[in-house]
Amino acid sequence: MKTNRRDAVSLAKLLRAGELTAVWVPDRHHEAMRDLTRARGTAVDDLRSKRQRISAFLLRKGLHYCAGKKTWSQAHLNWLMSQRFEYPEHRLVFEEMMMAMRQAQERLERLEQAMRAAVPDWSLAHLVTALMAMRGIDLISAATFLAEIGDLSRFQSPGELMAYLGLVPSEDSTGDRIKRGPITKAGNRRARRTLVECSWSYQHPPRVGKDKQAKVAAAPQAVREIAWKAQSRLNRRYRALVRRGKLKTVAITAVAREFAGFIWAVAREATAARAAAK
After folding, report:
1. Under a CB-based contact definition with an 8 Å cutoff, are residues 47 and 101 in contact?
2. Whole-structure pTM value
3. Domain map of the chain by residue range?
């Protein structure tokens, strides 16, 4: 039996026992930022789809790009525009596909520019600056991650953030038997995908590139120390897992789990530094 009175009594008992946890409610500006980042994600998927259609069309005509390994670079675009077709219908179809791809690219650029313009007025702008000090994270990925997760201070420990992202192993244990499976994939899939994509940069040895130095310098000293520690730790973790025979995708997922812990620490230090500056 389910009634409003029974539900109210149940909630009152849980509140008295301390079993209820307060939730974080985003404000309207945060919801607007989340809609903007999700629109950008949709534009990325649309652009990828249109590029795949162009590649599939050329493959059906026996046209293969062999001049380089990287596709959709300037050299690849020059190769695309140099193609010749036997029938004018094929040329018309190809030009329409290319026009749709260029429009999708322009749409993506407009949305990314809007994100760059909106971040400074956002309540989590200081966290975006702090996260950009970490390897693999730029303004777009930092804003996307924070727009989906929100206020990181609501997580009491790094483990809570890892579990919220669905990066912890699933478990089916009973009695003396302990059985752990793949990650749970619970929580926000957009934030998890962004984190995993950023984690691929940690397969390379620790370093701070020329373009990254200004972003690192903009963060507080404690954040810079955590960012460098993350580079050293996560690269060692990745190499150790690969040496044990783990697939690269599995190793990167494990790196992403620990990466979430470093992000939690960075957010805590950035928030503390901002409070001390006021």
Report:
1. yes
2. 0.91
3. 26-122, 124-278
